[in-house]
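__Protein archive entry__

___
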Amino acid sequence: MLKGFFNVPKAVNEPVKSYAPNSPEKAAVLAAYKQMWNSKIDVPLFIGNEEIRTGNTKNMTAPHDHKHVVGTYHLAEKTHVEKAIANALEAKTKWANMAWEQRAAIFLKAAELIAGPYRARINAATMIAQSKNVFQAEIDAACEFIDFLRFNVEFMTQIYNDQPKSNSDMWNRLEYRPLEGFVYAITPFNFTAIAGNLPASAAMMGNVVIWKPSDSQVFSAKIIIDIFKEAGVPDGVINVVFGDPVMITNTVLASPDFAGIHYTGSTHVFKDIWAKIGANIHQYKTYPRIVGETGGKDFVVAHPSANVKQVATGIVRGAFEFQGQKCSAASRAYVPQSMWAELKKQLITDVNSMKMGSPEDFSNFITAVIHEGSFDKLASFIDQAKKDSDAEIIVGGNYDKSVGYFIEPTIIVTTNPHYTTMETELFGPVMTIFVYEDAKWEETLTLVDTTSPYALTGAIFSKDRYAIEQATIALQYAAGNFYINDKPTGAVVGMQPFGGARASGTNDKAGSALNLLRWASPRTIKETFVTPEDYRYPFLGE
């Protein structure tokens, strides 16, 4: 293929704005926040060219002020899901046959809309809907989402340009077709960028999509829908439904045209979906692609040689940014006895310096967890730690849901490396630390590897290169994203492809070409220029 034909704008990572006092971006996002806070939006289903209001609605509230209603969204019935599937399949032929560069242009335009006129709105919506502070909203809803769209276009062109060898008498080529059917995208509450990328990446490769956002993220998902529409995504390519997740999923998986799922969410739900796909396998027209990123019990391991302040910062940022509600968030740490006294003091100082409250106040590092169910679960584990003889809360441990779902950043120290919060995914601002004997470094690495069924992210802090190499080898299957002398969060598109294995997912690496390949079904075409006219080969003789 002609390489020049595939030239596209070179993808670069979107710069992170500072939101410093008196900056124009701070003024813009606060203005958008205030306007959206009182907007009372009404979010319909988006099916084909229709906006469907079923009349069966739920309220959207802010986690940091759960009595304040910012809007409502409409719930689908089974007939609406079936209609979404029909509309997707109707749109499929025209969308799949569209020249790839036309699809690319749509999503590049979407990236520019986010970088420019929609930046303040999508960040403010994420602050309201998910209680992210402005920095967490900026690196997610703006920068990462922009990066996904721009880099996926570049990855798509690399894929299309990967062609087999040909000889003078034949031309071999690969055609990267979309999947035969439709893709189902299920997205989580915690990242606006993931909510946009899961349907967009499949659609970019020519697929049509049924998208079910998290009920806790509909407010900011509406901004994504507005962006896609303004960018020119045709009607029926991405159909959006809200409602009972079991009903929607069962209806989707019952369709013979179901061709794949792009999922981020809980491990238990993903396994249930996989089982349902297996039970329905005989009725599908093709073997569905199953791509999922699920839970994590992510670790920080400090070697005795590590810098104490660096370890403290890695633990605090890794565990408590966005209230620990990242799949990659650190929630268990292993630190040497020789370091513990100094590290403990630094951790307590750091956590006590954090302010907690509404994201509208830019001095707050900590805001609320996503909903009451999460709050109650976290509170129960904190209460249990207060009672257990093998656990001690050294900082935090308080909570209050009278206004918002606020959990103090909490650090538990345990004498039991298998204590429940060392093994159970909590998805909140709770870090558990086990202090190991310095001489038991190798045993501790084995402990880290075998404690959790998950394998998403992990970090090692050390100044000793031999120890770093030892940990890198010992923990090679313990984390799909492994960090050396850094916190285990903050993967950047195009730099650190993201995903884990074991109970953490299929490790299909969002933010790389590996993920996009899952949404293509290649066809090999061989064209012979001078076709043989006699079946006999020379070995047969005369």
